[in-house]
Amino acid sequence: MTSIRHQSHRSTGHLLALFTILIWGTTFVSTKVLLVDFTPIEILLFRFLIGYVILCIIYPRIQRVVSIRDEALYICAGLCGVTLYFLIENLALVYTTASNAGIIVSVAPFFTAVFAHFFLDGEKITRRFLAGFAIAICGIILVTFNGSYMLQLNPVGDLLAFIAPVVWAIYSVLMRKISSRKVHMIGATRKVFFYGLLFMLPALFLFDFELNLARFYHISNISNLLFLGVGASALCFVTWNQAVKLLGAIHTSVYIYVVPVITVVSSALILHERLTWVSILGASLTLYGSYVSESNSRKNKKNFTLSKLHRNA
To answer: How far is residue 228's CA from residue 230's CA, in Å, rounded to a whole number?
Structure first.
């Protein structure tokens, strides 16, 4: 019975992670449309503000502070997963190309695995995970360049893009620790959003920000902001955090490999951007690499669970 319940939880985790990545992979299209009238910091603020309001409506119950240590986890998660990650990623795009940033940011699963290996129980790096990582990165490079074969090094921007996945890895580990407290995931995500928005306020004075209400009269802007706020933020952060709770930080992070693939496909379908045989080959390699890493994680998770059950018997 325990084994069946465990398998059911894992299947749910996979579905939640896949659903989240399908949505996150298309956010590039909405962001690109909004960048015509909004600055990156404005999109970021409005996106998470909408997400926070939605989560408050869905789960209005106030979560009390259990301890300073637990609250520190939420504070750090909000700083890393909401404020720093997206600000650093957007800032990197100012100094480097989207291709460079896309490749560098896609190494997030590797850093997540490293941090999880040292700071979480039952999540270890193995050769099969590293092999899958190498295959997926090769695929991501092909997908991102899409046949252009042009690499331009931009030290400042590339360094910022390199920091972004490190910050996301820290967030993943923090959410794994938070979920182990058996908290309500919607309430936990809402609290993370609150601290993320709080840390975002000082950034408004450093970047271009203005309240131009005329921009909100356009249906395209409203619909894309709602998509990013309700779908990609409120809904997807909850489903992603729940997946991390059910599958673990390493296992869930493997799905990040698929984001560039979904982005390229959605851009081709919606924005009519060029799709070449190189990007198709890259997409195939990326999916295969994620499968290799995922199958390794599944085996390790099963062995860890069986070992835990044996000790408790």
So the answer is: 6
Q: Coil, helix or strand for 264?
A: helix
**Rounded Cα gap, residues 40 and 29, in angstroms:** 14
Q: What is the mean pLDDT of the chain?
A: 81
Mention every residue, 6+ apart, whose C-beta is less than 8 A from residue 50: 225, 226, 228, 229, 230, 233, 234
Cite the DSSP H helix spans in the chain. 2-24, 27-34, 40-58, 68-77, 85-95, 98-105, 108-119, 127-145, 155-179, 185-200, 219-226, 236-247, 249-253, 259-270, 277-312
CA distance 179 to 194: 17
Helix 219-226 with 40-58: angle, nearest 10 deg: 60
Copy the structure tokens of residue 17: 């992670």
Rounded distance between C-alpha atoms, residue 30 and residue 282, angstroms: 23
Residue 118: CB atoms within 10 A of its CB come to: 11
Ranked by mean pLDDT, the top range of 7-16, 47-56, 120-129, 290-299 is 47-56
Residues 267 and 28: beta-carbon distance below 8 Å: yes
In one letter, which amino acid is 44? L
Cα-Cα-Cα-Cα torsion 234, 161, 167, 26, nearest 10 degrees, comes to 20
d(CA 221, CA 201): 22
259 residue type, one letter: V
Q: Do the beta carbons of residue 43 and residue 273 sit within 8 Å?
A: no
DSSP letters, 46-100, are HHHHHHHHHHHHH--PPPP---HHHHHHHHHHIIIIIIIHHHHHHHHHHHS-HHH
CA dihedral 170, 173, 176, 180 (to 10 degrees): -110
**Of the listed ranges 153-157, 229-233, 278-282, the one predicted with least confidence:** 153-157
